[in-house]
């Protein structure tokens, strides 16, 4: 630790995570989860730092802390007394990152002529040959003055308006040259005013090496002309008022435009990769910091784009043919390509690149839409994924609903499978053993005056009777239509559970598990995806714009709605809603229920939807296990997959009923026995008061 000493008082003491720093230079790996710099002294102290992350903060206090250390915390940290700034201690910290040996400021803001700018800093002390040049490859302007220090970085002194350009830094590590991000510098010139200090540098050469002499300079000053202004009050007053009114209106218009721009939806990658967790406090990996492997690069000229499969505000997905994607150069592969629209902003470009990095980080699995390649150079960014010929599961279920219903035989003495006419509102009641009524929403709860009219309970078939009635339905060779049966629904459920189990094993949280985000490919294989920028949310009444996030309330776990906490267990809750979608043949969850105080009251009280018309009792038991209010009691996706596998016909016929144990709510009659509907109490939380399925955290 380098100290500037005083005669009486001692300089401040710097501590890192409560340990006194004895050295002047420290190297800390990027991603360190615990980083706390403390400054202690005999009086009030303050920090001064060159770290780009903290440089713009006017007052740092005596403690600097962060949950996750990033490269932009690299810099020199000086701690000084507020009443004696020349008595200080300092330490230089390198935040070592193998992928970024140079760190640059995210933005320089307003650069004034004559000011100094710290352009870049090294994150690794062993890097050498630190230099700066213009981004187009040209050397720096000849009149630019800058200093290069391995520890302090590159500092450009006294910038001029002629220095406005794009710059990059470079350095070598292990013999390999690394280049920083482009740093644009725009220098604003200012008109001098009377009384302001004027500093004019004078640079000379001394070829004869004579050091004795004197400097003579002359300053020619021309005072600014002062011109009188003559105007009558009658002319001046209306003009001034008109100009002021116009300026005010323009200012208000500018504020409205900026507000609308801030409220405009921003594309966000829903999938999150967990780096570490402490209870419900999760630390997520910044996807922009994930590495990108160049092996995914695919020649742009070997891709033939076709029709649009889906489009949103910022991007679209198109069908395409890839030549040579497999083992042979002449081999053709049908793929889907996600790309940005010309209207996309830099945030959307960064988000699409983050999505690409996440998919490459996860790896391949049969039940997720896998990454096949990408084009990131020489044109617009293209992300190439598997093509799923049957589209999304929600629309597939809607299209096959009639085939599913009408394919069930109706023999003498055979119970009729319940059809689903329009405005069908009959749901099975499961809340308690006492006398019950049920609302049109299909929510299982106790009797209450606040409920709507009651309806008779629909007949629900057992799994064995379902399979007996439907049997094995095959494709009709005449119509080419493949009917939908209960085995298909079970397989979809099992495959999605396997895909979610894979994501959980990779510490990945989906945050939007729903039938709309499951695609079906050849062989009716279900694959999990994230439509992201390819969904037309601006024209979808299910989405509400609030901030920069869009959250599907009716699919979300209670802890996600009320506390904005997302875990693998919150994905399990959403999976239970997905099961309800599948076995209701694509109905929207909580039908006829408005997302308001009453809805949140139901969720808090542990009320849940009744058994869907086509769900076997065993599947409904799994749904209730997923909807346990205690997240730790919900089953793991591996357990869910095993339970559903037992229900499939080709599995051993033993123990096909999910067991009541860890991860299940137990007897629903006991669990929800006190689920009374007191929906108009004051003081309830109202995260959203809109008639839609989405809110924002």
Report on the structure:
The structure is a single chain. By secondary structure, the chain is of the alpha+beta class. It is about 20% helix and about 25% strand. The chain has eleven helices and 34 strands. The strands form ten sheets. Strands 1, 4, 6, 8 and 9 form a five-stranded mixed sheet that branches. α5 runs antiparallel to α7 and α7 packs antiparallel against α9. The two termini are about 45 Å apart.
What would a concise description of this structure say?
With 697 residues, the chain is α+β, with helices and mostly antiparallel strands. The chain is 21% helix and 23% strand. It has four domains: 2-96, Immunoglobulins (Immunoglobulin-like), CATH 2.60.40; 104-188, Immunoglobulin-like (Sandwich); 287-386, Phosphorylase Kinase, domain 1, CATH 3.30.200; 433-514 and 552-680, Orthogonal Bundle (Transferase(Phosphotransferase), domain 1).
């Amino acid at each position: 630790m380098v100290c500037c000493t005083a005669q009486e008082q001692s300089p401040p003491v710097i501590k890192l995570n409560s340990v006194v720093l004895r050295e002047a230079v420290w190297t800390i790996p990027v991603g360190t989860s615990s980083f706390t710099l403390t400054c202690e002294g005999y009086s009030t102290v303050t920090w001064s730092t060159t770290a780009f992350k903290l440089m713009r903060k006017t007052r740092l206090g005596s403690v600097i802390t962060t949950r996750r250390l990033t490269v932009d915390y690299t810099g020199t940290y000086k701690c000084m007394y507020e009443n004696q700034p020349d008595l200080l201690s300092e330490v230089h910290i390198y935040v070592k990152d193998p992928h970024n040996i140079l760190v640059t400021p995210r933005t320089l803001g307003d650069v004034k002529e004559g000011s100094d700018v710290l352009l870049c800093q090294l994150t690794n002390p062993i890097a050498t040959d630190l230099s700066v040049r213009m981004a187009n490859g040209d050397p720096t302007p000849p009149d630019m003055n800058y200093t290069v220090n391995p520890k302090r970085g590159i500092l450009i002194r006294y910038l001029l308006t002629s220095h406005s350009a794009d710059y990059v830094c470079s350095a070598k590590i292990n013999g390999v040259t690394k280049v920083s991000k482009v740093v644009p510098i725009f220098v604003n010139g200012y008109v001098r005013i009377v009384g302001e200090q004027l500093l004019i540098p004078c640079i000379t050469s001394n070829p004869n090496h004579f050091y004795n002499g004197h400097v003579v300079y002359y300053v020619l000053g021309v005072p600014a002309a002062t011109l009188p202004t003559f105007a009558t009050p009658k002319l001046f007053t209306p003009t001034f008022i008109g100009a002021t009114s116009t300026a005010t209106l323009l200012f208000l218009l500018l504020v409205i435009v900026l507000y609308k721009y801030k409220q405009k939806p921003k594309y966000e990658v829903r999938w999150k990769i967990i780096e570490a967790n402490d209870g419900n406090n999760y630390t997520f990996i910044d996807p922009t910091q994930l590495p990108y492997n160049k092996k995914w690069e695919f020649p742009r000229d070997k891709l033939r784009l076709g029709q649009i499969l889906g489009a949103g505000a910022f991007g679209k997905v198109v069908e395409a043919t890839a030549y040579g994607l497999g083992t042979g150069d002449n081999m053709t592969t049908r793929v889907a390509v996600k790309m940005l629209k010309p209207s996309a902003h830099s945030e959307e470009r960064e988000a699409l690149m983050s999505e690409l990095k996440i998919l490459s980080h996860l790896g391949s699995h049969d039940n997720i839409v896998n990454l096949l390649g990408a084009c990131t150079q020489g044109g617009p960014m293209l992300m190439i994924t598997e093509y799923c010929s049957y589209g999304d599961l929600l629309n597939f279920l809607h299209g096959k609903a009639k085939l599913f219903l009408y394919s069930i035989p109706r023999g003498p003495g055979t119970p009729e499978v319940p059809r689903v006419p329009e405005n069908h509102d009959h749901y099975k009641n499961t809340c308690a053993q006492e006398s019950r009524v049920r609302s049109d929403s299909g929510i299982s709860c106790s009797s209450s005056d606040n409920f709507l009219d009651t309806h008779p309970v629909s007949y629900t078939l057992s799994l064995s009777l379902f399979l007996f009635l439907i049997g094995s339905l095959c494709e009709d060779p005449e119509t080419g239509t493949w009917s939908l049966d209960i085995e298909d629904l079970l397989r979809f459920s099992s495959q999605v559970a396997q895909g979610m189990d894979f994501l959980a094993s990779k510490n990945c949280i989906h945050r939007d598990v729903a039938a709309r985000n499951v695609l079906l490919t050849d062989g009716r294989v279900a694959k999990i995806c994230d439509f992201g920028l390819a969904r037309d949310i601006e024209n979808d009444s299910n989405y509400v714009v609030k901030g920069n996030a869009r959250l599907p309330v009716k699919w979300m776990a209670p802890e996600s709605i009320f506390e904005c906490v997302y875990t693998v267990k919150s994905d399990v809750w959403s999976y239970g809603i997905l099961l309800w979608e599948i076995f209701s043949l694509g109905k929207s969850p909580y039908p006829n229920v408005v997302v308001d105080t009453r809805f949140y009251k139901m969720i808090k009280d542990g009320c849940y939807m009744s058994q869907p018309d086509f769900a076997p009792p065993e599947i409904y038991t799994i749904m209730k296990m997923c909807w346990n209010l205690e997240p730790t009691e919900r089953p793991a996706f591996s357990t869910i997959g095993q339970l559903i596998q037992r229900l499939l016909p080709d599995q051993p016929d033993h123990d096909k009923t999910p067991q009541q144990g860890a991860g299940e709510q137990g007897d629903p009659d006991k669990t929800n026995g006190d689920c009374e509907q007191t929906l108009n109490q004051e003081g309830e939380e109202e995260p959203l008061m809109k008639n839609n399925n989405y809110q924002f955290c």
